[in-house]
Amino acid sequence: MLSGYVGSFVFVLLLAFGIFLFGYAARRVSALYVTALEIIFGSVLITPIVLLADGINFSDLFAKPSKETGYG
Length: 72
Hints:
Order of helices and strands: HH
Shape: flat
Distance between the termini: 35 Å
Largest sheet: none
Mean pLDDT: 81
Radius of gyration: 17 Å
Strand content: under 5%
Low-confidence stretches: none
Structural class: mainly alpha
Number of domains: 1
Number of strands: 0
């Protein structure tokens, strides 16, 4: 249970740090660039988690859902 609290606390700290950095960047450059960076960083951070948690292949992320893959 303690690890859940520690994980949540670290997540909140990283989230606050990220919001601060992207807010600072938004004041310095165009909002389009900041949005593109958020999408890229989000994809880079979330893709490994999805692959490890669901136990799927990288190609399955972009495959059409079907009964064979269990997602259709």
